[in-house]
C-alpha cells in the first residue's frame, strides 16, 4: 500500500526574472548554511536556538525558580528551486519555512504573484476574506471576512478606490487545497512535498501568467501600491531630477492630513516662527533651503520637515516630513503606466484608468462656473465665508453651523455658503488627498440627506433666513433645482490641479450626486 502524501502548509514566492543568482536573492548568504537537494534546489537555513520564553520572567518573576525546562526554539529555512515554466523559460521560486522569509532580499520577488494565482484559481462566488485599503480619504486598511462564501460585491468593494491587498477563497481545482490566500506570496495547504513540488509550482506559474482573472476581477489592476525598493528609488530619483530641472507641472506640495485652518498661524520650513508662509508651496520650500542643500535635494526632501504653528497658542501644532507633503505624477509612455506619489507612498495606476479620471476631471474643472466667488485675502475659511455673505446678500453663511442628526452621521455641516439661487457651496483650503476627499465626502452626505430625509430638511430650514428657505420640509425636494459646488482655495496661478486619488473621490461624489439629480461643479477660489 503506497504512503499518502501529507498535507503541507506552504508559502510560495516567485522570484523576479532579473535575479538568477541565489546570492542576490538572499540577504546574508555567507551567514547561512545550505544543503543541495539533487534535481530540486538548495535549502538555506540558519542555526536554531532554544531560549526561555519572555513571559516566564515578565509574569512569574523568580517564582518558578531555575529548574523549569520550558523553551522556545526558532527555526528558519528557505528552499530556492528553479522550475522550467515553459519550453524556453526557467524561473526561481522561494518556499520559506518558519521565519525563513526573513532571509529574502525585499524587492526580489514578484509583487502580487500570490494575488493573481488566487484570483485565477478561486471560484468568484466562493470568496471568504479580503484585505483592502481604501484610498478615498485618509488611507484605511480593512480586513473583511464573510460568515459564508460570497462574491466580491458582498465585501462592499469600491472598485475605483479600494486597493486589494489579499484575497482568500475556495479554489475551483482541488489541487490547490480547500482554501487559498494570495498577496505577494501564495499561501495554501496542499498534498505536495519535495518530490512533486516542481510540477505544482509550474501549475502556479501558469495561473500567474494567465489573464483569465480579468473577466471577474479586471478592476483589481487599476491601482496597486509599489513595494519594490528599486522601483521606489527609481521613481524618487526621477522626481528629484524633475525638481532640479524645474519641471514642476506634475509635482506640488500640500498638507497631508486634515488641519484646523482657523487655528493656523502659518507654515515654516525651518522650525522657527519667523518668515511664516500662508501655505505649503514647493517653489517656496526650495527657495528657503540653505545654499549648501540646494545641490543635494535628496537629503532635503527626505530629511527636512515642514512645521505648522497655531494661531491661538503660537506654538508648534503639526509637523510632517517634506517627502510626505509631496505629490507627484510620473507617466511612463513606453510601459503605458502612470505612477503617483501620495502621502509618502508610490502607487501604480493603469494608464487607461488614469486617462479616464483625468479627462473627466479636466472637463469638470474647465466648465464655466454658475456663481462668482470673490478672491481669498482672509486669515481662514470661516472669515472668508462670513465676509462673502456680508458683502453679497444672495449668500448666506452656514460655515460651522452644525446640524445634529441621528444615526451614524452625528453632526452635519450642510454647506459653507448657500445662495438664493439654490447653490450649495462647500469651501475648502487646498490640501492633499485626505483634505479634499473629506470635502467631497461631506458634500455627498449633505446632498443625500437633503433629498432623503425630511427631518434633516426641517433642521436646515430652521437655520436659514426667510430669504433662503428651501420650501416645505415635508414636500419632496427636487434635486435638479439645486447646484452643488465644491470650491477650493488655491494660491497657484495655474489651473486647479488636485491629487489623483482626490480626482477619483470627486468623480465618484459627482456620480452619486448626479444620480439624485443635482448639478455638480468644481470651482477655484484664487488666493491673493
From TrEMBL:
Q: Output the Pfam families linked to this UniProt entry.
A: DUF6119
User: InterPro entries this protein is in?
Assistant: CHP04141
NCBIfam families xref list: TIGR04141 family sporadically distributed protein
The name under which this protein is listed is: Sporadically distributed protein, TIGR04141 family
Amino acid at each position: 500500500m503506497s504512503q499518502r502524501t501529507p498535507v503541507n502548509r506552504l508559502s510560495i514566492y516567485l522570484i523576479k526574472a532579473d535575479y538568477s543568482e541565489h546570492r542576490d536573492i538572499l540577504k546574508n548568504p555567507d551567514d547561512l548554511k545550505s544543503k543541495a537537494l539533487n534535481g530540486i534546489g538548495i535549502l538555506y537555513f540558519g542555526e536554531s536556538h532554544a531560549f526561555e520564553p519572555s513571559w516566564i520572567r515578565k509574569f512569574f518573576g523568580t517564582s518558578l525558580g531555575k529548574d523549569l525546562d520550558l523553551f522556545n526554539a526558532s527555526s528558519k529555512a528557505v528552499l530556492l528551486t528553479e522550475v522550467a515554466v515553459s519550453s524556453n523559460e526557467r524561473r526561481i521560486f522561494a518556499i520559506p519555512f518558519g521565519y525563513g522569509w526573513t532571509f529574502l532580499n525585499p524587492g526580489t520577488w514578484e509583487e502580487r504573484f500570490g494575488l493573481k494565482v488566487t484570483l485565477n484559481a478561486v471560484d468568484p462566488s466562493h470568496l471568504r476574506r479580503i484585505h483592502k485599503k481604501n484610498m478615498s480619504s485618509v488611507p484605511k486598511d480593512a480586513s473583511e471576512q464573510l460568515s459564508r462564501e460570497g462574491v466580491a460585491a458582498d465585501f462592499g468593494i469600491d472598485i475605483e478606490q479600494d486597493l486589494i491587498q489579499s484575497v482568500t477563497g475556495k479554489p475551483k481545482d482541488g489541487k490547490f487545497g480547500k482554501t487559498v490566500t494570495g498577496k505577494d506570496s501564495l499561501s495554501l495547504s496542499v498534498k505536495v512535498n519535495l518530490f512533486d513540488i516542481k510540477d505544482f509550482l509550474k501549475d502556479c506559474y501558469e495561473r500567474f501568467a494567465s489573464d483569465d482573472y480579468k473577466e471577474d476581477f479586471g478592476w483589481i489592476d487599476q491601482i496597486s501600491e509599489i513595494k519594490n525598493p528599486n522601483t521606489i528609488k527609481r521613481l524618487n530619483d526621477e522626481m528629484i531630477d524633475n525638481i532640479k530641472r524645474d519641471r514642476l507641472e506634475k509635482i506640488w506640495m500640500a498638507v497631508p492630513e486634515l488641519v484646523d485652518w482657523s487655528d493656523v498661524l502659518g507654515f515654516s520650513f525651518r522650525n522657527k516662527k519667523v518668515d511664516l508662509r500662508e501655505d505649503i508651496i514647493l517653489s517656496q520650500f526650495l527657495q528657503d533651503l540653505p545654499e549648501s542643500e540646494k545641490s543635494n535635494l535628496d537629503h532635503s526632501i527626505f530629511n527636512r520637515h515642514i512645521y505648522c504653528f497655531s494661531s491661538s497658542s503660537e506654538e508648534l501644532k503639526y509637523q510632517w516630513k517634506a517627502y510626505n507633503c509631496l505629490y507627484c505624477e510620473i507617466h511612463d509612455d513606453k510601459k503605458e503606466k502612470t505612477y503617483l506619489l501620495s502621502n509618502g507612498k508610490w502607487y501604480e495606476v493603469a494608464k487607461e484608468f488614469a486617462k479616464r479620471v483625468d479627462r473627466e476631471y479636466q472637463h469638470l474643472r474647465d466648465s464655466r462656473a454658475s456663481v462668482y466667488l470673490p478672491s481669498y485675502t482672509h486669515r481662514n475659511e470661516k472669515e472668508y465665508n462670513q465676509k462673502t455673505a456680508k458683502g453679497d446678500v444672495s449668500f448666506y453663511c452656514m460655515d460651522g453651523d452644525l446640524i445634529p442628526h441621528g444615526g451614524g452621521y452625528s453632526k452635519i455641516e450642510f454647506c459653507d455658503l448657500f445662495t438664493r439661487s439654490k447653490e450649495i457651496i462647500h469651501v475648502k483650503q487646498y490640501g492633499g488627498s485626505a483634505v479634499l476627499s473629506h470635502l467631497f465626502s461631506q458634500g455627498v452626505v449633505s446632498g443625500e440627506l437633503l433629498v432623503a430625509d425630511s427631518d434633516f430638511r426641517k433642521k436646515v430650514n430652521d437655520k436659514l433666513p426667510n430669504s433662503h428657505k428651501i420650501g416645505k420640509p415635508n414636500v419632496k425636494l427636487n434635486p435638479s433645482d439645486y447646484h452643488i459646488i465644491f470650491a477650493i482655495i488655491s494660491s497657484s496661478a495655474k489651473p486647479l490641479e488636485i491629487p489623483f486619488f482626490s480626482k477619483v473621490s470627486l468623480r465618484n461624489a459627482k456620480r452619486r450626486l448626479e444620480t439624485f439629480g443635482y448639478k455638480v461643479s468644481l470651482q477655484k477660489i484664487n488666493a491673493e
